[in-house]
Amino acid sequence: MSIMTKKGVWKNTEDEILKAAVMKYGKNQWARISSLLVCKSAKQCKARWYEWLDPSIKKTEWTREEDEKLLHLAKVMPTQRRTISVGRTPSQCLERYEKLLDAACVKDGNYEPGDDPRKLRPGGIDPNPESKPPRPDPVDMDEDEKEMLSEACARLANTKGKKAKRKAREKQLEEAGRLASLQKKRELKAAGIDIRQRRRKRRGIDYNAEIPFEKRPPPGYFDVADEDREVEQRFPTTIEELEGKRRIDVEAQLRKQDVARNKIAERQDAPAAILHARKLNDPETVRKRSKLMLPPPQISDQELDEIAKFGYASDLVGSDELTKGSSATRALLPNYPQTPNQAMTPLRTPQRTPAGKGDAIMMEAENLARLRESQTLLLGGENPELHPSDFSGVTPKKKEIHIPSPLLTPSATPGSAGLTPRSGMTPARDGFSFGMTPKGTPLRDELHINEDMEMRDSAKLELRRQADMKKSLRSGLSSLPQPKNEYQIVMQPIQEDAEEPEEKIEEDMSDRMAREKAEEEARQQALLRKRSKVLQRELPTPPPASLELIRNSLIRADGDKSSFVPPTPIEQADEMIRKELQALLEHDNAKYPLEEIANKEREKGSK
């Protein structure tokens, strides 16, 4: 008995069977899919689909952007291959990562992918065969493979299983029974035998035939008999009517129409038909031309003209125009090299990126290789030296490449002789370095034709510098874009008076009565609080007879006074107290008479 081991590389037939099985059974029934393949398990089938056969997997060459993203994500999220593999499989990411690290670790720079020690040698066993291309089928297949292929074809071609066959058989039997009963009824009716089943009447409401408590709407002005007519609903009976036309059939029909149309066109006008067919088959017409996308220019046309003017003299060095003439004439012409002064800005535009920075991908790969080779922190030692890297986001940071221009060098450093000449700038300290040339002075003046400017008049230079600063500021502000919208802020005046009350809602009668009652009680309480302390404490008040006695005593005391002897302060105070006492008693007796107080006390006692 031979034992079948479920391992090994995948073949082309197995891949095709797996794709057809996934189309039929889906991506969840891997056990049923693996039953079609003799030498493969359900786990292997699932891995093969997600590692190679899935249409969303990219099998093209790795681009520079993908390499940068892979190295950056491997630095941010190490050992999470399935997380960082977007559009690629984890095995592809790991393989590419190892290749980049090997290329970065090579010292001489001659990296050969064929010298990879991880490459599978002849006779070796592939540990991950699911992520490799399929092996082509042999011409003479084994009997087991032929049997597996025929069985898979039979099972995949069977679109109707046992359940569908049983349902179709039951439906056919029901249709045959219905036709037999119908034929029997017709024969009995033709013989004069009435076999109609009479149902006996029910006492109550037949809920299957009637609508309980139905109220029919009264008939209207217009006739609606046609609207109540039942429309016959036709349901699909065949699979083609249910599912619609297949795409293959539609394409075949369109192909037939194209062939017939071409034949008619060839009969009528053969040269035009051939020309039209050639135009349709031309790949240039099929391929859509993409729009040319160029980066924005870093140097304007005016700056290019200025650079050309600056370099015109250096281009003439050694040309026929300078070689013509006598030796005396050539002696008068100085030698204008490309850079007249060491501190001058170069007039030629350098390359796109300065040399010596290296490749960003190789720098990231070297960083990761050094981090992988570094020991644990517990052992101590120095940290590995890494190139500057970026951890600001999940994706690598894009660097915009700017073309260096001699006209864009900074001009704010005073006293430096290596800046680009601009009109109206302060001259250098010596008369021979023209890094910051004055107005009208040429860039190169080795014959000393121009007069040296005196540096003594610092006040004029300061005024000129301030004027230049104002001019540059004004030009910078004038280059700002025009405003699209106009805004106007209007401050509302502060109202000193109180705000007008809002419109009141009409108050309810009960609420108004309650409010008035509460206001009346509050007013009464305020009046009661204004009484004297005797009445507030409900002490006994003197009767009107005592008031007469007090008044008579005051009159008598006034009559006893001598008009010659002035009263003492104590006497005056006593007199004022008695007058105030008399006024209080008269006020309380007039406003709160004794009868009213007695009535209130009686009411309290009765309660």
UniProtKB/TrEMBL annotation:
Comp. bias regions, Acidic residues: 496-509
GO CC annotation: Prp19 complex; spliceosomal complex
PROSITE patterns: HTH_MYB, MYB_LIKE
Biased composition regions of type Basic and acidic residues, renumbered to the chain: 510-523
Keyword Repeat: yes
InterPro entries reported for this sequence: CDC5L/Cef1, Cdc5p/Cef1_C, Homeodomain-like_sf, Myb_dom, SANT/Myb, SANT_CDC5L_II
Molecular function terms, GO-annotated: DNA binding
Superkingdom classification of source: Eukaryota
Region spans: Disordered: 108-178, 334-355, 493-523
Localization (cell): Nucleus
Residue stretches making up the Myb-like domain: 2-53, 54-101
All residue ranges annotated as the HTH myb-type domain in the record: 1-57, 58-105
GO biological process, one term: mRNA splicing, via spliceosome
Keyword Ubl conjugation annotated: no
Keywords from the named record: DNA-binding, mRNA processing, mRNA splicing, Nucleus, Repeat, Spliceosome
Biased composition (Polar residues): 336-352
Bias (Basic residues) ranges: 160-169
Main location: nucleus
Family: Belongs to the CEF1 family.
Protein name from the UniProt record: Putative transcription factor MYB-HB-like family
Organism: Medicago truncatula (Barrel medic)
